[in-house]
Structure formats: structure tokens, C-alpha cells
Write a structure and sequence with these properties.
The protein is of the alpha/beta class. The chain contains twelve helices and 17 strands. Strands 3, 4, 5, 8, 9, 16 and 17 form a seven-stranded mixed beta sheet that branches. 46% of the residues are buried.
Length: 349
């Protein structure tokens, strides 16, 4: 079969190759991948020499957001059959460590992740444990279903926000995660959800998706959006969720919070940059700074959110490519500010 392989971080150490079809164990399912979405930050890290992802073990087939048809099932699999439409949770845990036994699998010391340290979905077929595979309804496209993983991660972030009834929430950044977070938060206890971002085309997309309040951010002058936000919420907002990964935006976001407010850092800060926070401001205003890593056991809820339209998955997809044009697709995603989710079709010529 065809698959994208990185022998080690860096485009020059990778390629679309003929690789072995995955072996199906008794508790496994082989999925014929119809759609696999690019996670821009992760795939860009794989593509950078000497960088890679924090979880990666090379060589590896990347791709942790995918959907398709069941191709083959192991002898112990009874809930699925060939031809079923499915997507899959990319995480694998030991199930036996201190954290797994506390149902805190995100902290498992041998955390496994398809597309990072286990072969993932940028191939024609991928092996997944049976308990990680989920049926998808016929009304849900493969493109939208491939977004199950980012939606599941965003659901975990919403949980981490601990939104109380009537809270005001500002989401910083309108990339795919910011757009998903804002859509999910719209259906939370929040009384007001404001999306703040610097790309006007993405703010327009947000409005088309039903996000009622958006504010443009000038990356050279934060006072513009800060003043507008203060007009709406003179005391500040209860919660800020950062979906930019910018250390400057994260630091600045503390000043947008009302007393007792909470900053939730969702986006990963790339490189070795450090977030410098004002401890006096945090102390005097009793501010909380917390983070949201990936997810565990949120896929069922994610599929429901996509299927019932709370998250409009198809509208997030701006570009589609066959596997042979993966690098063109990645460059489009990284370099075009208007691109949101770029989908690869491994079984399309």
C-alpha cells in the first residue's frame, strides 16, 4: 500500500512509499482511510529537521485525524464488519499504570498515539484497536468525521474551562481549533462567546458558522481589540481560551480577565519560547492559568457534536488533496493564512 513515512524529522527524510499492509491482530480493525486531516502544527513539526513532535518515535507514518471504511476485523471483533463507516480515536494507553487505573489516561507514562509513535492515517490502510473505533452516521461525511480527534481535544478543553452559567468567554485565534472551541462554547453555560483573531476571512467563516460575536485583532496593537472587549465587558471576561500558541497573546490575555478569571492555554507553544506572566496581577486578581493537553474518552461526544451540527465540520475543510500531493497540501496549510483544515484522501488518485 502507499503511505507517507518519516524516517526522522525533516522533509528530506520522508516520502510517499510502498509500505507493508498492517497486520490485523485478534482485537484490531483495519480501516481503509478515505479522509485524513492535516493537523498543521503537528505535521509541520514532523516536517522540520531536528524538530519532530514531543510524542514521536521514528520511523512513523503520521496522521492522527482520519476516517474511512472497515476493511478487516480481528477474530475477537463483533461490533464491526467490513464496509462499516468509522472514525477512530488515535490514543492508546497501557490500562494498568497509576493514572490509567484512576481513569486519567492522558497522563499514562507510555501514552501511545497513532501518527506520533504508532503508524497513523496518512496511508491507504491503518490498524486501530477495536475499542478505539467508532461508527459514524451516514449523514456525516468522511471529511467531517476525520475531525473527530480535534473536536474531542476541544471538548476536553471546554471541560477544563469549567464554564459556569452566565460566564463570558473570549477565544483567542480563529484557526481550526479556535473555530471548534468557539462553536462548542456557544453550546455551553456561557452567556457570551467572543472570538478574537487577526485573519478577517476566518472571522467571516466564524460568523457563517453561527459564532455571533467576533473582534478583529491587530497583532501590532492589542489595544484595538482590548478596548472593544472592554466596551462589551467593562470588568473583563471570566475565561480566556488561547488557541494561538503565541507567548505574547497568552501574556496579554491575562489583562483581559476580570478578577477571579481563568486563562486556559489550549494551543501548544512551539520552540523554546517561555510564557512570562505578571505574578502581581495574578495574585491581586486571583487569576488562574491552566492548560489543556490532548483528550481521552471524548470521541463519542465529538461524533455527536459533529453529527448534530454543533460543530460544522464540512465548513472547516478548505482544501483537499490526494496522498501523492501531501507536501503541496502541507505547504498550502502552513503558508496560506486563509486555509483552515486541509484533508488528504489516501485512496484517491
Amino acid at each position: 500500500m502507499k503511505g507517507l513515512v518519516y524516517d526522522k524529522p525533516g522533509r528530506q527524510y520522508s516520502g510517499i512509499r510502498d509500505i507493508p499492509y498492517p497486520q490485523c491482530g485478534p482485537d484490531d480493525i483495519i480501516i481503509k482511510v478515505m479522509s485524513a486531516s492535516i493537523c498543521k502544527g503537528v505535521e509541520h513539526d514532523h516536517d522540520q529537521e531536528g524538530v519532530g513532535t514531543d510524542l514521536a518515535v521514528y520511523p512513523v507514518v503520521p496522521g492522527h485525524e482520519f476516517s474511512g471504511y472497515v476493511e478487516e476485523t480481528g477474530e475477537h471483533v463483533t461490533e464491526f464488519k467490513k464496509g462499516d463507516r468509522v472514525c477512530a480515536d488515535n490514543t492508546e494507553y497501557c490500562g494498568e499504570c497509576y493514572y490509567c487505573r484512576k481513569e486519567e489516561s492522558n497522563y499514562c507514562p507510555v501514552f501511545g498515539s497513532l501518527g506520533h509513535n504508532i503508524n497513523g492515517g496518512f496511508a491507504q490502510y491503518v490498524r486501530v484497536r477495536k475499542e478505539k473505533v467508532f461508527h459514524i452516521p451516514d449523514l456525516l461525511s468522511f471529511n467531517a468525521a476525520a475531525l473527530g480527534e480535534p473536536v474531542a481535544c476541544c471538548l476536553h478543553a471546554v471541560d477544563r474551562c469549567e464554564v459556569k452559567y452566565g460566564d463570558s468567554v473570549a477565544v483567542m485565534g480563529a484557526g481550526p481549533m479556535g473555530l471548534i472551541l468557539a462553536q462548542l462554547l456557544t453550546y455551553s453555560n456561557a452567556s457570551d462567546v467572543i472570538l478574537i483573531a487577526s485573519t478577517e476571512s476566518k472571522l467571516k467563516k466564524a460568523e457563517e458558522m453561527g459564532i455571533k460575536r467576533t473582534i478583529w485583532m491587530d497583532r501590532k496593537d492589542y489595544t484595538i481589540h482590548a478596548d472593544r472587549l472592554r466596551e462589551l465587558h467593562p470588568l473583563g471576561v471570566d475565561i480566556v481560551v488561547d488557541a494561538t500558541g503565541s507567548v505574547d497573546v497568552i501574556r496579554h490575555s491575562m489583562s483581559l480577565l476580570k478578577k477571579g478569571g481563568r486563562l486556559v492555554q489550549y494551543a501548544l507553544v512551539h520552540g523554546n519560547e517561555q510564557v512570562l506572566l505578571d505574578p502581581r496581577l495574578m495574585f491581586n486578581n486571583e487569576l488562574t492559568y491552566t492548560t489543556s493537553f490532548c483528550q481521552s474518552h471524548n470521541f463519542g461526544r465529538a461524533i455527536e457534536a459533529l453529527a448534530d451540527g454543533r460543530v460544522k465540520g464540512d465548513q472547516l475543510v478548505t482544501h483537499e488533496f490526494p496522498l501523492d500531493k501531501f507536501y503541496e497540501a502541507l505547504d498550502e496549510n502552513v503558508n496560506n493564512r486563509d486555509s483552515i483544515k486541509v484533508v488528504i484522501h489516501p485512496n484517491q488518485e
